[in-house]
Amino acid sequence: MSETCTLRFDKSFTQQESIPEEGISAAVDVMRSGRLHRYNTVGDEPSETDLLEREFAEYLGVNFALACASGGYALQIALRSAGVSSGDHVFCNAYTLAPVPGAIHSVGAIPVFIETTDAYTIDCEHLEREASKGKARYLLLSHMRGHLVDMDQLMSVCQAHDVLVIEDCAHTMGASWNGRKSGTFGHVSCFSCQTYKHVNAGEGGLLVSNDPALMARAIVCSGSYMLFGKHQAAPDIAAFEEVKYTTPNISGRMDNLRAAVLRPQLRQLERQCVRWNSLYHALENGLRGEQGIYLPCRPEREAFVGSSLQFSLPLLDSARIEEFVLLCAARGVELKWFGRDEPQGYTSRIDSWRYLADLPELPNTRRVLAHMLDLRLPLTFDEHDCKVLATIIKDVYKSIC
Predict the structure, then answer these.
(1) Could you read off the pLDDT of 44-70 as tens digits, one per residue?
(2) Domain residues of the chain, as ranges?
(3) Cα distance between residue 146 and residue 173, in whole Å
(4) pLDDT in tens, 101-123
(5) CA-to-CA distance for 188 and 197, rounded, in angstroms?
(6) Strand extents, DSSP E, 261-380
(7) Under CATH, to which class is 21-267 assigned?
(8) Of 36, 138, 309, 373, which residue is 20 to 30 A from 339 by alpha carbon distance?
């Protein structure tokens, strides 16, 4: 038997790099102080959470930022603060993760799912057809697995039909379209700091906007009580005068411990993005051109962050894709399959969200997900690891064809 046929991958797909020493030291200082709550400060000193918000706003070039307990929570208060209320219709990607329709449902709104293209992005043509009906005034846009749609086209569609864009940038912190950072297109945008995202606090989220009224509502909604004056990446105090009486407190603040862990990672983000892309390109180069394995070409205007890679096996039916996934797993390669009939781990598809009524068929999304596989690329891997992964994937594919 050849070496290729016995090759196995032994690294973990869920092992992240350690927190930077600066973050560990800052977290220890917070624990020693005992002041973990974001508003538990002395005098006018900024908390770690205040500093994180200010630094993230500066990084993106936006006016306001808010640190939250999770990315999913940030989505919920973004929707509320943007004006989404019970019974409203909200467009969203059909190819997304469960917290996206979950956030829409949590505010009593109704998701309107939009088809998926072969490039794994939202279908702007389908969005325009649906927007022309005038039923929905909001779009919760997921840059799913780091794939940016043509943002010029998308924003043109939304502006033409008066649709307000809320960006879900959970997979695109550090990415940009045509030189403009992901998260600066939407009226309000959300980022995730969950362990498998581009900065790691275990859980956490960030919400950004240039709209002072929206941000005032978000800050009160996040659980500021009447302490909103302590926020530094926030609108002037006058913006809170009315909303402090009319906005519900649904507490979901970030604490100083997580903020202390995140701040050094934010400073390293650009360097980390370069490292992710070196892994992505090593794996992509190993797979591209292999007959039967499809990878979409990334647009020149898209500066993505390759913390994961997706590919499709369009020639295989469901039974053989299931076999392919199992054979790869037996050789240490963990693949997620969004087309699986039953939800598994973090992956599910539209027909799994049965708390929603009248789920549409969306044949193109079903076809795309039926053949698409997803592979995480943690920074504990190196380029040689990615070449090994490509070799195993190709070998398994050939073995079942």
Answers:
(1) 899 999 999 999 999 999 999 999 999
(2) 21-267, 269-400
(3) 9
(4) 999 999 999 999 999 999 999 99
(5) 19
(6) 302-303, 308-312, 336-337, 372-376
(7) alpha beta
(8) 138
